[in-house]
Amino acid sequence: MRSPRRKPITAIEPGLPLIPLKLARNDTFSNLVEAVVPNKTREQLVLSPHNIRTFIGLIEEFRGADLLRRHGMSVRSKLLFCGPPGCGKTLTAEVFAHELGLPLIIARLDAIISSFLGETAANIRKVFETASEQPCVLFLDEFDALARARADGSEHNELRRVVNSLLMLIDRFKGKGFLVAATNLEESLDAAIWRRFDEVVVFELPSQREIRRLCEIKLKNFPAPFSVSEKAPRLKGMSFADVERICENAIKRSILKRSKVLLETEFDTAIREELRRKDLRARLHQH
Ligand SMILES: Nc1ncnc2c1ncn2[C@@H]1O[C@H](COP(=O)(O)OP(=O)(O)OP(=O)(O)O)[C@@H](O)[C@H]1O
Ligand SMILES: [Mg+2]
Q: CATH 1.10.8.60: does it fit domain 208-286?
């Protein structure tokens, strides 16, 4: 999250202590919500230049929130993360929380909505209450589950009630932190949902430059005596998670060959395996 031209955002204060989430009796619900002290740092993250600027702007606004509010200005706090799987939505939420020095509360909406029995609405409310009591980043993962439930939940009164109360909670959310919703199906989100967010951040498949940067990060402790950059074109169309898997597999294979450096043959094999895996996935999805 560093901008080449601007002064880098200085180190953050140590993370705030977490107020434990006190959820209602329903034990299964506590599996659906997780409070984490974020420890992923920006050194591990590759972002597009546009997204770097967006996050720097958001962090500056957050730090100057009191000043802005005194001038009657609102502070952006509701973000929607969109983009294909494995491109950094969850990782960015964690790095963002870490940069802000805030705890991260992760709620998986698909799981919450599919277990919509009885106390779910009350528990969702509790999550939002907790997130309003303490400054934090509230991360609503699998947000498209909400849109799906809206589309096909009309016969289910209870489901509709859960969805409506969730939308209301999002509208009213005034936490001293951020609400971040993530989805990889942005087309399933209708205008009514889009307009509830102050900022939409798109996470795309990595560019060639970003692939090279990720390889550099992943191979930092296991140097390659050959040019990994030259192989980047073969990784076109892969997600960050795919590229990371190639690097890790290549490292493992080299270690098992008792090598102290990355072996080019093993890197090539790892690329071939990933391509085969991608091909298989594509064929399975055709049927
Ligand atoms: N932009 C990135 N920079 C560095 N590593 C990344 C990036 N994106 C993904 N990764 C790696 O891939 C893993 C999976 O990424 P992440 O969970 O953030 O994807 P996601 O966009 O949330 O996917 P999904 O839609 O499946 O939830 C991360 O833990 C990280 O190791
Ligand atoms: Mg994710």
A: yes
